[in-house]
Amino acid sequence: MKISKVSQEVNNSANQDREQFSIDVLTGFCSTPKNLSAKYFYDDIGSELFQKITQHEDYYPTRIEFQILEKIKNNIPKIIASKEVDIIELGAGDGHKSQLILDGFLDNGIKVNFYPIDISEKAMHLLEKTIRPHKNLEIHGVVGEYFEGLRFVRGKSSNPELVLFLGSNIGNFDRVQNQGFLRKLWKILDDGDFALVGFDLKKNVDIMIAAYNDSAGYTKAFNLNLLRRINTELGGNFDLEKFEHFGTYNPVKGGMESYLLSTEKQNVYISDLQRSFFFDKMEPLHLEYSFKFLESDIDFLSEQTGFDVIQHFTDDRNYFVDSLWKVKKK
What we know:
Rossmann fold; four-stranded mixed β-sheet; 12 helices
């Protein structure tokens, strides 16, 4: 696998990344309620913890989506109907779901150029262990933010493109942000290109709450890793044992919410910011939304952002949908 670090190629240096991290921490900790951007979950340690979450029995989305992709992997190549295709995955993770999609094309005699894009270089090395070599498969990993990586790939691509945005990643954006994200994706792609997007559907609340409070404690460790990052990278003095994880469902917003709660009154000093932040007892630090959808929400999103829905692929219990969209520009 060839790996390109796009962040370095566009002069997005480690110092700039650290400066942006400190600015985002300052902004978030001066807000009410305090918050941290979910994009900082995925350093190498966070990416590894997330893979453990997805493999836990309490976390249904990965397991259910895997079943869907296994069922439809031979349908998608027939719909796209091209002898060669560029498959671009935003946030490829460990690649087990990617392998299913690739198998569908390769088993149908189609040449595939696979471009996984992930902010974590460690994720690329996980892919190297997962994705099986094939004579008709070329792999070019891209380390960087989604859209900078996508623009990098677009400069090399001349084939029909299929963008994969799997898992429930689209649910990390609110109802306005997800339209902005998808419209931005639409602008970069060409007319007739495709996107396969994963949507976690609304369902029994107990099932969703269990998924975001797994019994092994991986989600707790995943969230606390954000505080560890501040300690390591920005000179913070968080005591991780003085915070507890709390995940709940908000029926008004229609999504899961993740928090860290301060278990006592405390001051935390961050040397890069040269200031302390006060946390009251049981004060919440908001980390993430994971919004859930109805199929009507998915149809609305595609219509508003310039895509035609080709087909919704779901499981027998309607827990999850992988929706295949086509770019419409004419």
